[in-house]
Amino acid sequence: MRVQLENDTIRIRVDEDELAELLGDVALLGSTAFGRAFTMRYAIDATDGEVSLDGSAHEWRLEVPRAQLLELKSRLPSKDGLVFEISGNNTAATRVLFDVDVKDSLRRRKS
User: Fold this and answer.
1) CA separation (Å) from 101 to 38, 42, 71, 84, 111?
2) Angle between helices 16-23 and 66-74 in degrees, nearest 10
3) For residue 25, is it left (φ>0), alpha (ψ between -120 and 50) or beta?
4) What does the chain look like in DSSP terms, one character per residue?
5) Most buried among 26, 91, 95, 109, by the most CB within 10 A?
6) Distance between CA atoms of residues 48 and 63, nearest Å
7) Mean pLDDT confidence for 46-70
8) Cα-based distances in Å from 9 to 37, 58, 105
9) Is the distance from CB of 2 to CB of 97 less than 8 angstroms?
């Protein structure tokens, strides 16, 4: 899983194995160390509800609707992922881009 942060956007890219884990109710966990200052930990999970983002700057959890993950899986390989806008509290909305690595999908279909 790769997580990129830029301005008010979170981009998450997974491979097909990680997508299968999500759909099998296994959360994807990651962390990024910022030198000695702190470590940011994050989790991505499937939910039967709406998209949600909770936590703090040091530790956050994104829940992605399972129905949309299944729909994305059905059209792989695809460059078009999922896009979510999550309202902020008196701040700009957070945009979440979630996609599956197209190169990984194409390699799997050639094998």
Assistant:
1) 29, 19, 15, 18, 16
2) 140
3) left
4) -EEEEETTEEEEEE-HHHHHHHHTT--EEEEEEETTTEEEEEEEEEESS--EEEE-SSEEEEEEEHHHHHHHHHT-S-S--EEEEE--SSSPPEEEEEEE-HHHHHHHHH-
5) 95
6) 9
7) 96
8) 22, 17, 24
9) no
In the block, which residue shows the tokens 């094998």? 111
pTM for the model stands at 0.89
The rounded distance, in Å, linking the Cα atoms of 51 and 111 is 34
Q: pLDDT of 31-52, one tens digit each?
A: 999 999 999 999 999 999 999 9
Q: Which of 83, 64, 66, 62 is nearest to 74 (CA)?
A: 66
